Amino acid sequence: MDRDEIERRGFPPARRGYDPAAVESHLRRVADEFDALGRAAAETPRPSLAEGASTQVRAILEAAETSADTLREEAGRQASDHVERVEDAARGMLEKLDRLQTELDRLLEGLKSSAASLSGSLEELSRDVGTLQTTAAPSPQPVASASEPEDQPAPGVAAANGSRSDDEAGARIVALNMALEGSPRAETARFLTDHYELTDVEALLDDVYSSAGR
Q1: Which of the chain's termini has less CB crowding within 10 Å, N or C?
Q2: What is the pTM of this model?
Q3: CA 77: distance to chain centroid?
Q4: What 3-state class would DSSP assign to 81?
């Protein structure tokens, strides 16, 4: 519809109808409004295809960014949980290592103490063996003269007349020397019985052979 159609004339006459002048005036106002609407529509720029596409792309990008933010947050939470689990496991391992280190330190201290005690015992045994060897070393025998008898008794050993010595310390040294040289206990006991007057030979042999590790 255009302005001419709105403002056309030649309405059929009728009795008691509308006033033709009033009708024409009204139609002119309608035509004016129609023209104004057409001009307004023509002046208003229509959105181009590029603008529409840009709007869609912008919406897609916004949705993608929102999804990316959500994924980042979820990944951050999962990573945080994983880090916490790793930290807990590491703390537990460190605690176990601390306990193990404590046990090792205790064992080392015990070994050091045992080694020191053993070293002291070995030193004492070495001194005893040295003293025994020095004491039991045979002294050079003097050449018998014509005025002296050939069978002189050794210090602490029975004399030729069959008497026995009561030197328990000397008997202990002799017994220890025999034990270290590998003499059987029975042989040592027989020698002590033959040459010494002792109150308890068996007790002395127990002590001597225990010290010699026999």
Answers
A1: N
A2: 0.28
A3: 28
A4: helix
